[in-house]
Amino acid sequence: MVHNVHFEMMTKKNTTLGEFIIENQNSFQYSSGELSKLINAIRLAAKVVNHEVNKAGLIDVLGAAGDTNIQGEDQQKLDVLANDKFIQTLKNREIVCGIASEEEDDFISINSNDENHQNKYVVLIDPLDGSSNIDVNVSVGTIFSIYRRITPVGTPVTLEDFLQPGDQQVAAGYIIYGTSTMLVYTTGDGVNGFTLNPAIGTFYLSHPNMQFPKTGKIYSVNEGNYTHFPQGVKDYIKHCQKEEGDRPYTSRYIGSLVSDFHRNMIKGGIYMYPKSSIASNGKLRLLYECNPMAFIAEQAQGKASDGHQRILEIKPTELHERVPFFCGSTAMVTKAEEFIQKYH
Ligand code: AHM
Ligand code: MG
């Protein structure tokens, strides 16, 4: 009941995501309706995946991954299922010319031999990030990133259509399957968040114009890796813990990027996945995780860096490359960079 009252307050204008997409279509500089259709397709796939994630706890009842269910269908792992749902939805609607997914070795070309096929967007997706959290009922997310292709329409997409620097993104967003399910996205004109009303399957604008506080009091990092971190990162962590001014900060790490990012955007904070002596570029993928989150962060007045340069200016060289990632409130990311850059 309390939840419903809160929901009513948050959505007092009752703008749905569908209405918002239509209303804002004309403010998008390349508007042809194609991007709107694409975001609508992502909205649809998000609802399907949400439904599956929500019943994950019933897995022992309904059958574990690898089992065959009562209809004779194989039960899939949720990350595989999410991957299939997003790819199928985008393929069926024929609104993109290519898809790359963290779950796939190579990119997928769509209608590559059809010269009448005029679609100009490619989508890069991490269908279910943080999926190791599913078994323990902790929030997971989907992350997506959209670019205009570089190669001519009507020809097969190539690797270069996907290996574009993040500052070329036309849209990016995430879905968080949490206590509420939210879809948060940007088309380069600020960041807006929509909350799903599960009773009727509609996303409502609940968080218009989301912005990172300039600074915050939360740092999010896997401190179990502390001994393997570069000295600059260790020094910054010690800085966060020091009793001085508004410090020590609070340590909060879910191990689910979308959830850690989302909390930090609302409350103010920094998320870090540094390189280490055991992972030379950290863990997170530039194309599927860092670029979209960096685009959202910058559009929300935050900052994203690899410790030395802006994430969005990195020129990718391969689909699955990893980069160190420092992202969140601008003042905190700048401070972390200062510590890191003391050591070459
Ligand atoms: P995944 O793409 O395999 O799910 O990994 C990405 C996830 C992030 O969501 C999270 O922030 C990070 O891995 C946690 O990694 P770690 O357990 O090493 O701290
Ligand atoms: Mg991931």
Please provide a written account of the structure.
This protein is α+β, with helices and mostly antiparallel strands and about 350 residues long. The protein has ten helices and 13 strands. The protein has an eight-stranded mixed sheet, with helices on both faces. Strands 10-9-11-13-12 form a five-stranded mixed sheet, with helices on both faces. The N and C termini lie far apart (about 55 Å). Magnesium ion binds near residues 102, 126, 129 and 289.
What's this model, at a glance?
With 344 residues, the chain is of the alpha+beta class. The chain has helices spanning 2-10, 17-25, 34-54, 59-62, 78-92, 159-162, 231-241, 257-267, 286-299, 330-341, and strands spanning 98-101, 108-109, 121-129, 140-148, 171-177, 181-186, 191-197, 202-207, 218-220, 250-251, 269-273, 303-305, 325-328.
Order of helices and strands: HHHHHEEEEHEEEEEHEHEHEEH
Largest sheet: 8 strands, mixed
Globular, elongated, flat, extended or rod-shaped: what is the shape? globular
Q: Percent range for helical residues?
A: 25-40%
The amount of beta strand, in percent, is 15-25%
Distance between the termini: 55 Å
Q: Order of strands across the widest beta sheet?
A: 2-1-3-4-5-6-7-8
Low-pLDDT parts are: 1-11
Structural class: alpha+beta
Secondary structure tally, helices: 10
What Rg do the Cα atoms give?
A: 20 Å
Give the rounded overall mean pLDDT: 90
Distinct small molecules: 2,5-anhydro-1,6-di-O-phosphono-D-mannitol, magnesium ion
- Total beta-strand segments: 13
